[in-house]
Amino acid sequence: MAPTTRAVVQTGPRKLELRSLPVPEIDADSALLRVEACGICGSDAEQYTGVLPGAWPSVLGHEPLGIIERIGDRAARRWGVDVGDRVAVEALIPCGHCPACIDGRYPLCRGRGRMFGYSFVPLDQPPGLWGAYADLMYLDPMSIVHPVRRDLPAEIAVLFNPLGAGFRWAVEIPGTGPGDSVLILGPGQRGLASVIAARRAGARQIIVVGLSRDRHKLDLALALGADHVIDSEEENVRRRVRELTQGRGVDVVIEVSANAPEPVAEALHLVATGGRIVLAGVKGFRAVPDFVSDLIVVKEVTVRGAFGVTRRAYDAAIELIESGTVDLARLHTHDFGLERAEEAIRTLAGEIEGERCVHAAIRPGLG
Ligand SMILES: [Zn+2]
Ligand SMILES: [Zn+2]
């Protein structure tokens, strides 16, 4: 009988099944990953609930960390890794040929329909095992893998994904450096990762804004290096930011709040003249109420979108993880085996009463 592997397959909105799938054959250019951990983020929740439309069935899991189980000769040479090495895998599978890829801007690849763990690459597209909620996962020849030291706990190493976003969105894109004041709207995984990255880049002042129900995340932001946190339901954010910045506003705003469009309009009031705003939280394609574009003009504000992460930012994240200089264990709160994938996503999404989740991971080895 052909060997099989367990994998969590989504068959429709809120429908997950643990199935046995055939282990794919690999060729000289591809590989198989034994998944140690796969991070869960808001995109998993959006797929699970059907907010992100899908071509189901497909295997979930786009933030994989694992050990190379088998690898073709050419893949080993090209990627610089071999059987037994631990790697972090980027979700995007770039095409390598489009203008964006050739210009080195692969997060904008037109081939970005090909990603691990998303239903745009469904189960019926060979070899099927395109997601990391599984014991084994297929690594396409165009996969981007980053070696990670093996002696770190998997639940810490798997933080490469949100931390990579923090480095790209809060540092690389706005050019954050020493002397900058940085305001982060939204204290989720990526907001907290932005705190860590901005601190590492030498930001002078870091302020994080969240809701009352985010209190535990705001406390964590302070523990990870934020100077001030603001509960937007309890305090007047504009007045507080003015006080904290001697009336100037902040140099950099990172907008990473989920779903609510209002903070985008608010960012224009909070940013200093000549400041930079990075928009990375998606809003379900809804318009922003009370958006005063004149503020962009009169303050000469730079507004940039951020979609995805770059190799550089992932490398910065992995270097930080390997350095052991930040107590990252505080970010990771929940682990789940494959058979509890549904509970894992619902816990991250805040659907489970009493669970205060920051970062969760699927750990196939747990059962
Ligand atoms: Zn994700
Ligand atoms: Zn491309």
Task: Summarize the SSE layout with pairings.
Layout: E1 4-12, E2 15-22, E3 31-40, H1 42-49, E4 58-59, E5 64-71, H2 73-79, E6 86-89, H3 99-102, E7 136-139, E8 145-147, H4 154-157, H5 160-172, E9 181-185, H6 189-200, E10 205-210, H7 215-223, E11 228-231, H8 237-244, E12 250-255, H9 262-270, E13 271-279, H10 294-298, E14 302-305, H11 311-323, E15 332-336, H12 341-348, E16 359-362
Parallel strand pairs: 9-10, 9-12, 10-11, 12-13, 13-14, 15-16
Antiparallel strand pairs: 1-2, 1-4, 3-5, 3-7, 3-16, 5-6, 6-8
Helix pairs in contact: 1-12, 5-6, 5-11
The structure holds zinc ion (2 copies).
TL;DR?
The protein is α/β, with parallel strands linked by helices and 367 residues long. The protein has helices at residues 42-49, 73-79, 99-102, 154-157, 160-172, 189-200, 215-223, 237-244, 262-270, 294-298, 311-323, 341-348, and strands spanning 4-12, 15-22, 31-40, 58-59, 64-71, 86-89, 136-139, 145-147, 181-185, 205-210, 228-231, 250-255, 271-279, 302-305, 332-336, 359-362.
Look at the structure and name the CATH superfamily of the largest domain.
Medium-chain alcohol dehydrogenases, catalytic domain
Average pLDDT confidence is 96
How much of the sequence is in beta strands? 15-25%
Number of folding domains? Answer: 2
Cofactors and ligands present?
zinc ion
Classify the fold: give the CATH topology of the largest domain: Quinone Oxidoreductase, Chain A, domain 1
Based on the coordinates given, report the CATH architecture of the largest domain: Alpha-Beta Complex
Q: Which radius of gyration do the C-alpha atoms yield?
A: 20 Å
Report, as a whole number of angstroms, the end-to-end distance: 23 Å
| Largest sheet geometry | 7 strands, mixed
